[in-house]
Amino acid sequence: MKSTIQVLHVVPHAGISKKTGINYDMRMAQCIVHKANRDTGVIEPLVGELMLPERYKEISPGMYEVEFEVSISREKRIESQVAVMTLVAKPKPAVDPVPPAKAA
Fold first, then answer.
1. How far apart are CA 59 and CA 50, in angstroms?
2. Out of the domains of life, which is the source (predicted)?
3. Which phi-psi region, left, alpha or beta, contains residue 62 (left: φ > 0; alpha: ψ -120 to 50)?
4. Core-most of 28, 72, 90, 93, by most CB within 10 Å?
């Protein structure tokens, strides 16, 4: 399954597990999923977090084509995980550059 996802910001979560004492380093990407409505074809944005696999934890903001694969969790639940992320486009700046002042 492929989806178009816009990564806005990546938040690191690192530390030492209180339960096991093992170091952890996870990255959560703040995203907008550009999902097409199956009935109308209209793009409906969904906002959420995506846990990034180790190989993609250094990605920068931008538009990505993301392919997911199905997996089974420890609790025996069917879940999806990122298989491949391909950069489609860098995001445009949030603020337009200031135009030069006109001479009087």
1. 12
2. Bacteria
3. left
4. 28
Token pair in block for residue 9: 């910001």
Q: Dig out the tokens for 100 from the structure.
A: 């030069």
Pick the CATH number of 2-89 from 2.40.50.140, 3.30.2000.30, 2.60.120.580, 3.30.465.10: 2.40.50.140
Name residue 17's amino acid. Answer: S
Q: What is the pLDDT of residue 89?
A: 76
Alpha helices in the chain (DSSP H): none
Q: Tell me the whole-structure pTM to 2 decimals.
A: 0.75
In which residue are the tokens 């690191």 written?
12
